[in-house]
Write a sequence for this structure.
């Protein structure tokens, strides 16, 4: 009953409701991933300097030639597409004898045209128009796409780290609270040792020991944040043990 009342209070409070809506939107974005991104490449990291620092809602046309190797839709949704072999932002273009003549985006009409021999590529070229809903950064990367993919990484780190900390903390807390005696002293000593170490220092040390990578970060955070869970579970088990 106390938990349900707490949840109701959170949703009744304006800040709690706004926070819940924001979290829900980020979860939807993280699940959708590349399906709603303008930049569908891996990590939304396609660089195009001519379109750098564009304002929101900018529309730019591109001539693109995709990579020959094509993955399944599920792989593309999870990891993103491979970067295209060729991607040029342009203002005007014309094609003559399998050769494209492009006026690169941002260049004036007096600048030399970009000449692309299309017959050298195995894949068919295509002309697409991209809308940068939140503009682009200093490297011409789509800001909205990077926010979407960043939300996936951030939520994944939080979810996996919490699951690891819950599993370790619950297991050790149950053992200490149920058996008591020497077992409780050993587990409590271990909890106090981990508790005394700065969390960030512990995360950095574990990351160095396990190497670089996203999964290593998940595990490092999970291994350094289980102490609070273990202390709470241990106390609850002790209180249940003393009841009739």
């Amino acid at each position: 009953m106390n938990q349900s009342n707490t949840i109701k209070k959170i949703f009744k409070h304006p800040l709690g409701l706004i926070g819940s809506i924001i979290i829900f939107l980020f979860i939807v974005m993280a699940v959708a991933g590349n399906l709603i991104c303008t930049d569908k490449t891996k990590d939304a990291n396609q660089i195009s300097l001519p379109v750098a620092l564009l304002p929101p809602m900018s529309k730019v046309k591109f001539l693109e030639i995709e990579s020959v190797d094509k993955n399944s839709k599920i792989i593309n949704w999870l990891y993103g597409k491979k970067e295209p072999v060729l991607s040029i932002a342009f203002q005007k273009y014309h094609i003559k004898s399998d050769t494209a003549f492009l006026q690169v985006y941002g260049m004036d009409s007096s600048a030399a045209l970009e000449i692309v021999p299309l017959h050298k590529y195995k894949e068919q070229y295509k002309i697409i128009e991209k809308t940068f809903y939140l503009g682009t950064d200093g490297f011409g990367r789509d800001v909205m796409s990077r926010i979407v993919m960043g939300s996936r990484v951030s939520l994944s780190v939080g979810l996996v780290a919490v699951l690891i900390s819950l599993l370790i903390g619950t297991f050790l807390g149950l053992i200490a609270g149920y058996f008591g005696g020497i077992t409780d002293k050993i587990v409590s000593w271990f909890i106090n040792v981990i508790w005394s170490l700065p969390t960030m220092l512990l995360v950095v040390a574990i990351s160095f020991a396990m190497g670089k990578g996203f999964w290593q970060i998940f595990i490092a955070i999970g291994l350094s944040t289980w102490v609070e869970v273990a202390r709470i579970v241990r106390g609850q088990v002790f209180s249940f043990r003393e009841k009739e």
User: Anything to note?
Assistant: The two ends are 22 Å apart (CA to CA).
